[in-house]
């Protein structure tokens, strides 16, 4: 599977001005997966406004050929080795492999952040997630 950004798609970091569009994307994603969405705009705003979050470093938005938001990734870190990754792809882009691209990007960013941990934390890096974990994440 090719995990590069599909031709015609563009990527950039999220800003607080993007929160309403990210919220709409999350809602459509959840409705397609579960038949409903339980996300509130205030929750998404609070998440993206967190003082511990660096949007320039920890986020990525993907836009399709006509400029519509097609995917998003948010990487949240705590205690050097704990990461929460939120990856969302528009239901209209099921075979675009945007999820694989965003997961690979999140793994890469997590590796860089873990390498910045103080020596006394004893962090050992390995080459990403095992393939069976990556596959199960992409298939859900």
Structural summary, described in words:
The chain is α+β, with helices and mostly antiparallel strands and 140 residues long. It has a single domain, classed as Aminopeptidase (3-Layer(aba) Sandwich). Helix content is 39%, strand content 19%. It has helices at residues 19-34, 41-48, 55-58, 98-115, 131-139, and strands at 10-12, 59-63, 69-78, 82-89. It has a 4-stranded antiparallel beta sheet, with helices on both faces. Strand 2 (59-63) and strand 3 form a beta hairpin. Helix 1 (19-34) packs across helix 2. The longest helix is centred in the last third of the chain and has 18 residues, at 98-115. The radius of gyration is 15 Å and the shape is globular. The two termini are 16 Å apart.
């Amino acid at each position: 599977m090719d995990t590069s950004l599909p031709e015609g798609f563009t990527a950039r970091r999220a800003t607080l001005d993007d929160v309403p569009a990210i919220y709409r994307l999350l809602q459509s994603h959840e409705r397609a997966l579960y038949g409903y969405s339980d996300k509130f705009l205030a929750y998404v705003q609070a998440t993206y406004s967190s003082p511990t979050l660096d949007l320039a470093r920890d986020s990525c938005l993907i836009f399709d050929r006509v400029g519509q938001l097609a995917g998003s990734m948010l990487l949240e870190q705590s205690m050097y080795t704990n990461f929460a990754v939120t990856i969302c792809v528009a239901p209209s882009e099921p075979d675009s492999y945007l999820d694989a691209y965003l997961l690979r990007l999140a793994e890469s960013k997590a590796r860089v952040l873990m390498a910045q941990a103080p020596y006394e934390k004893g962090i050992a890096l390995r080459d990403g997630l095992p393939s069976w974990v990556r596959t199960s994440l992409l298939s859900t």
